[in-house]
């Protein structure tokens, strides 16, 4: 076991393999979003006690804890039960001749990827199609030039979306094999990870799929 020296305490970290990447399912994604402060703090500090996590929830105005320590333990138990948090060792603190032992918690992977939005929110596919209709109307109203049919427009946007998903998968595959990307993504919060991937995928479509961009440039019919 590795030891971390300190004047007041020693941390004893268990030997275990930490996966670089973990793909979250819908339930895990919702829990990670709900308990973002804990997930973020464990990314930064790696190993924390329940009391240290409790300190994250202090109201700035009242200077009082927003939740009891029992609530924090309940949160940790729920996160542990869904494989988002794990016990990583223990801390021994010496104070006034007494020894206090506390469990240490850490994440179950360095980088978390949220589940696809459609998996988290089942009605999103229908909402996306509705947004395509609204977008079609907007583009139709801001220019006098007629648009291609809605069926063609929707097919094109779906093609663009599918290509973005394809590049998204490629980016993920490279991350664990590239130290620069591994280090970079490890420093990102869970909400930023997916955002950066979405942006990268969109730009890769622009750069690598010129035929799609060409179609987008011709959504208005030539007069």
Task: Give an overview of the whole structure.
With 223 residues, the protein is an alpha+beta fold. The chain has two domains: 2-113, Winged helix-like DNA-binding domain superfamily/Winged helix DNA-binding domain (Arc Repressor Mutant, subunit A); 123-216. The protein is 53% helix and 16% strand. It is built from ten helices and six strands; from the N terminus they run E-E-E-H-H-H-H-E-E-E-H-H-H-H-H-H. It has helices at residues 26-34, 36-45, 50-54, 69-81, 117-120, 124-141, 150-175, 179-186, 190-208, 210-216, and strands at residues 2-4, 9-13, 21-23, 85-95, 98-107, 111-113. The strands form two sheets. Strands 1-2-4-5 form a four-stranded antiparallel sheet. Helix 1 (26-34) packs across helix 2, helix 6 (124-141) packs across helix 7 (150-175) and helix 7 crosses helix 9. 17% of the residues are buried. The mean pLDDT is 88.
| Assembly classification | single chain
CATH class of the largest domain, named Mainly Alpha
Task: Assess the beta-strand content as a share of residues.
Answer: 15-25%
**Average of per-residue pLDDT values:** 88
Rg: 24 Å
How much helicity do the residues have? 40-55%
* Number of individual domains: 2
The name of the CATH superfamily of the largest domain reads Winged helix-like DNA-binding domain superfamily/Winged helix DNA-binding domain
H/E element order:
EEEHHHHEEEHHHHHH
Structural class by secondary-structure content: alpha+beta
| Uncertain stretches | none
Give the tally of β-strands.
Answer: 6
């Amino acid at each position: 076991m590795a030891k971390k020296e300190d004047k007041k305490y020693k941390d004893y970290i268990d030997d275990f393999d930490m996966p670089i990447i973990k793909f979250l399912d819908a339930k895990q994604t919702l829990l990670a979003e709900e308990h973002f402060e804990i997930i973020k703090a464990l990314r930064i500090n790696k190993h924390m006690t329940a009391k240290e996590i409790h300190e994250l929830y202090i109201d700035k105005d009242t200077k009082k804890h927003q939740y009891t320590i029992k609530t924090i333990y309940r949160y940790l138990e729920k996160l542990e039960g869904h494989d988002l948090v794990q016990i990583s060792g223990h801390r021994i603190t010496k104070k006034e001749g007494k020894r206090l032992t506390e469990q240490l918690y850490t994440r179950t992977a360095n980088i978390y990827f949220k589940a696809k939005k459609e998996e988290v929110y089942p009605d999103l596919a229908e909402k996306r199609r509705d947004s395509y209709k609204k977008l079609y109307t907007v583009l139709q109203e801001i220019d006098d030039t007629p648009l291609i049919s809605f069926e063609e427009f929707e097919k094109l946007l779906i093609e663009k979306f599918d290509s973005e998903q394809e590049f998204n998968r490629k980016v993920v595959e490279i991350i664990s094999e590239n130290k620069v990307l591994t280090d970079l993504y490890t420093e990102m919060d869970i909400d930023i990870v997916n955002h950066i991937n979405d942006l990268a995928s969109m730009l890769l479509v622009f750069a690598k799929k010129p035929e799609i961009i060409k179609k987008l440039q011709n959504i208005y019919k030539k007069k």
